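[Automated response] Your request has been received and processed.

Submitted sequence:
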Amino acid sequence: MLQKLELKNFRNFAKKSLDFTGGITVVVGENASGKTNILEAVALLSTAKSFRAGVEEEMVNYDEEVGRVSGKISDETSLEVVLTRGVITRGEITERVARKKLLVNGVSKRMVDFAGIFKTVLFRPQDMDLVSQSPSLRRKFLDSVLSQVDREYHRAILSYEKGLRRRNKLLYRIREEGISRSHLYFWDKLLIKNGDYISAKREELIDYINETQKLGDNNFSLTYDKSVISESRLLQYKLEEVASATTLVGPHRDDLIFLEGKRDLAKYGSRGEQRMSVLWLKIGELDYITKSSGDLPAQAGKPTLLLDDIFSELDHEHRRLVGEIAGRQQTIISTADPHYLEFEDGFDKIEL
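Generated structure:
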């Protein structure tokens, strides 16, 4: 649970300090006032990544060289992310520095050791496109959930992505320069080892979400369209891979199919059904992260729910359902219009 958030030269905030309770906090402000920036900062302390910046230096205030986001969570752990543009000028001296530095209790940490100490679940309007848009969005969802609760998964996905880039470069050289396929041996082994772990954990998460309680009268489920990686599969596609200079099998080709009964919602679902299935998915994500933190105290084990201006996208019934979910754990909400909010027990309000 997040207790305090401090921003310095982050986005439009030169300096900002916010305190949070364990209940519902609503951040209210006009468009461009910085509501989403606050949720972005909270999520940054959780995942060490921005959910919106194409380039991380975008998060640094336009007129500054260094931005900081720091927070204190309920077990008194302090987290900090220091962001730069890659250089700092001191007088007449220009010094190259890391673009991002992660600290836990003042001690520098690798991303794999930082991400997931403080856990969050994010729900924003763009998530409504999870059902029907690019498979990469659905893979990113799986990775974001699993990386928060499984350090080995985070390591495996980083290793897999690095190995994939190296292997694709070698495929290009095989095609263009005629180098031997023996150069692929090490990277094949690395991708198979990490790919097996990634696939197993994705399948575990999907199975868990499929056991999540029903939402209303809908019968939602997920089908895992898994791209198995193995020596035989790589051999099967060896000619096509060289021709395209691309690895054609493996978890980077995985997909999720959203179903209502036997209907593929991407093809045959209404916009309302698609939105409700994403809400069902987010409930499953909340439950999975809570379950995976089972050795922690009850409140510490629950992720913080971040709702980024989603209520205008939902009808009355969906807003009521989200209101019920929001009261189960610490929840931080951004909105331009608090009249959409339907909570029985009230909330704390921060006005920008």
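Summary generated for your ticket: The mean pLDDT is 91. Residues 151-177 form the longest helix (27 residues).
If you did not submit this request, please reply to this message.
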